[in-house]
UniProtKB/TrEMBL annotation:
Pfam families: Glyco_hydro_15 (PF00723), TREH_N (PF19291). Keywords: Hydrolase. The keyword Hydrolase applies. Residues 216-581 form the GH15-like domain. One of its GO terms (biological process) is carbohydrate metabolic process. InterPro entries: 6-hairpin_glycosidase_sf, 6hp_glycosidase-like_sf, GH15-like, Trehalase-like_N. This is Glycoside hydrolase family 15 protein. It comes from Pseudomonas xantholysinigenes. Residues 3-130 form the Trehalase-like N-terminal domain.
Amino acid sequence: MPAHIEDYALIGNCRSAALVNRDGAIDWLCLPRFDAPAVFAALLGNEENGRWRIAPSDPVEHSTRRYLDDTLVLETTWTTASGRARVLDCMPLGEHNAVLRIVEGLAGETAFEMDLVLRFDYGRSVPWVEKLEPLTLSAVAGPDRLILRSSTETHGRDHHSVARFRLRAGERQVFSLCHQASHLPVQPGCDVDHDLQQTIDQWQAFAARCPEVGPYTGLVRRSLLTLKAMTYAPTGGMVAAVTTSLPERVGGERNWDYRYCWLRDATMTLLALMNLGYFDEAQAWREWLLRSVAGNPEQMQIMYGLAGERDLPEFTLPWLPGYERSQPVRVGNAASEQRQLDIYGELADAMTQAIKGGLPRHPRGSAIARSILPYLESIWREPDEGIWEVRGGRQHFVHSKVMAWVAFDRAASLAETTEEDRERGQHYRQVADEIHREVCVRGLDAEGQYFVQAYGSAELDASLLQLALTGFLPPQDPRFLRTLEQIERRLLRNGLLLRYDSDSCSDGLTPGEGTFLVCSFWLADVYVLLGRQQQAQALYERLSGLCNDVGLLAEQYDPVGQRMLGNFPQAFSHIGIINTALNLYRAQCPARDRARSG
């Protein structure tokens, strides 16, 4: 039976990441970068598409797993009739791309089997495997080489590399898998104990900088570690997820590649990092943003590659059957070519948050704003594909117009004190006011009672919650309150929000998907704004309860099947965990302070 998405844990080294199944198998790993072809692709196929399993060969009576305190070092403990043992899995931080797997006996005696299936190019290419030394294997296919070093001998079996061994208490076996270019001399192996301890120390040092946020601290720290693991250290860019093609509906076609950097993540990411005091990381993320969007504003994209690459062509991998037969399996993302007006507002908001959060103004930021805003002024009246990247044609999405308003509103608020800047700021305010007037006329339903997904539409959209969250309208505005009531009535499914109703909206795809988790976090944030703390707290507890046993969330959730959907782990969802926790904590602080003073 295939694993559910929530059965996976994440290990990573801020360059790439692997997903480890409960059964001890690494079913997904791309090397040397997040967006490189997978060497383990069983997640989207079967074991013959690549995986690496280390688990007891005897029946397992009990197993548990956890991360070592405030790290991304995964500990899986196995109990059999004859003994107890654990496996430590990690990817050491640094410039090397390696996976360490350390098997240690804890009690009695435990029999293990190691089964390594190396497949390059997303499970398509069987490499040439040879022994370099009795305990060292080399696997080569084209430009890539993987080196397996082990403390026990392996042998070949049907294009698998396998080993059997037994461990008593205090004994261990060590395996390391390292990636390198195939044309270079074989690189020396790592110092396992040094690399493991250094990795533990570095993760714990990062987590230790997180301030206390009351009862939310543990989950916030875990989400911070997850976001850090999804950051490409050489450039500061953050991938939306470490996977491609995990379905938004099992068996369906809503399968996308999320191993790229979206501009719209910038606003919430910067806010979360800076509010928790992670200014170095926030600055690196801002530097990535400014490098990526530099150039002609007409060529600004909604997403980029890890280093700011612009060409992200979308194609399918027909040899992979897909997760639970969900096809097609896609690489690249054609949405990179879409027009999405909201990104300009998200970029402006991110830069504003950075300045208000204490980061110094960036000279390139001001120059880019002076280039982008005139372009946005010329196109904001045009339709686009919107925040959800629909493939059914452009519309006048209300959220897109609101975020265009955000761009001019934030730019006006940051206008400096010179006469030229004041004049420019006044003009930006005039444009913002014009957009505001239009949205408040054309963005309402036919009776003028509540806002709708797009001009002339009757559909609702969870992105309309941003009307209050961005400050476009006060949260107590009757039009927003009626919009909120409609969203709750028409988009809630078992207490969680759809982003829109795909059964009635024409988005160019077959209907049906799960609830979109970040939208439910937005709903909790709106409840906080409205002073509805009990509702906000209850919803946050419901959402945080959906995390798997190691604190990870996917993009979506199926409340009927009670399982995660979509790519995993999802940055948007973990940013939601952090920002909503901060909103709740701040709302509770005044009450605690009053109680102490009384």
